[in-house]
Amino acid sequence: MTKNLVVVTAGLSLPSSTRLLADRLTEATRRQVRQEDLDIRVIELRELANQIAQNMVTGFPGPRLRDAIEAVTGADGLIAVTPVFTGSYNGLFKSFFDVIDKEALAGTPVLIAATGGSARHSLMLEHAMRPLFAYLRAIVMPTAVYAASEDWGTGGDSALDSRVDRAAAELAALVEARPLGHASAAEETVVPFAQQLAALSSEE
């Protein structure tokens, strides 16, 4: 019985501390899900930036973006990680979730996390990320994980690991409990644009 864990990371650099945090959370969750086979997929939003921008203006996703959307909306659990830009999530992160149907993540367990240069930006998780996923009716884990620059050093590493393990345990418990075959927007049929135009023409 396989469950799907999808990891969305919005880091822009390569290598990226955002991806590093996403990998830690993914591995910790994989260790915690003991009773299920876990299929893990990582989505790097920087690789989809052009298609996300095109979707914002046309309303239609390109093939790679559509595939990513279907993976996210069909997931049994989601890890969402973004760098902090101007006190909030970055624009690429927000744009990706803007192009997903607002009902598609209802009931999906989500672990939210962020990276930044200073610990003073950690409240972004509560005033920006948590409300975003609450609006999308996802189930947001009580423990959110923020990693500042100092957390990657020797002194802060154990504290970061503790937060990662606690958040992963919360997500793993809900992934294991989620029933198979849950409904998602990924199952809906998308009508091609040409077909929509034809239908409009026939009504005139």
From TrEMBL:
InterPro entries listed in its UniProt record: CE1759_FMN_reduct, Flavoprotein-like_sf, FMN_Rdtase-like_dom, NAD(P)H-dep_FMN_reductase
Membrane-traversing stretches: none
Keyword Oxidoreductase: yes
GO MF annotation: an example: oxidoreductase activity
EC nos: 1.5.1.-
Keyword presence, Ion transport: no
Annotated NADPH-dependent FMN reductase-like domain residues: 5-152
SUPFAM superfamilies: Flavoproteins
Keywords (A to Z) from UniProt: Flavoprotein, FMN, Oxidoreductase
UniProt cross-references to PANTHER family, sorted A to Z: FMN REDUCTASE (NADPH)
NCBIfam families (alphabetical): LLM_duo_CE1759 (TIGR04037)
Protein name: FMN reductase
